[in-house]
Amino acid sequence: MSQFNAPTPDTPTPGASRPAQPAPGGGSGSAWASGGTIFAGILLLVDGVLGVLKGITGVASNEVYTRINDYVFKFDVTSWGWIHLVLGVILVLVGVGILKGAAWARTAGVVLASLNIVANFMWLPYTPVWAIVTIAIDVFVIWALCTDRSGPDDLGRTG
Fold first, then answer.
1. pLDDT in tens, the chain (159 residues)
2. What does each C-alpha distance from 8 to 3, 18, 21, 123, 135 come to in angstroms?
3. Are 123 and 94 in contact (CB under 8 A)?
4. Which of 10, 41, 98, 102 has the fewest beta carbons under 10 Å from its own?
5. Is the entire prediction scored with pTM above 0.70?
6. Are 48 and 91 in contact (CB under 8 A)?
7. Angle between the 77-100 and 31-60 helix axes, to the nearest 10 degrees?
8. Among candidate residues 100, 141, 135, 106, the one with its CA nearest the CA of residue 119
């Protein structure tokens, strides 16, 4: 009677081209989504800075932006400036959190990018091109943060 040792789960079966289990630290997210998450963090930083600039400009002077008298969402440009200023500062902080790999930052990034889309949709009559560019950035950020399934360690970042 010969002794037969069954393969352990850590060793590949004979003829297998890859290990039976994924390597430690290997995530199920794609490289595109992982890179997209890092890029989303950078875009949130840029979007936050642009929001701060929009906010400062709106608070500083009401005559900077063209007003449309009978628009459905009628607000003072100064109040919109404060909204964009506060939202921009929070976006910068969440962007830094995403780049540091904080788990809370992904959820906060999706929520804040969604709020920023709504705010910029309502801001369309004042600066249409700038608002559309910001909406496009936020749509990409939401996609990138929702499609990446890897953890912070899988991206090579420390938190």
1. 555 555 555 555 555 555 545 444 444 556 665 677 888 899 999 999 988 998 898 788 765 445 555 655 556 678 888 988 999 999 999 999 999 988 899 999 999 999 999 988 987 877 788 889 999 999 999 998 888 766 555 544 444
2. 15, 14, 11, 61, 52
3. no
4. 10
5. no
6. yes
7. 150
8. 135
Length of the chain: 159
- 68: tokens are 């449309």
CA distances from 83 to 12, 22, 37, 51, 115 (A): 57, 46, 26, 9, 11
Q: Which two three-digit tokens encode residue 47? A: 């979007």
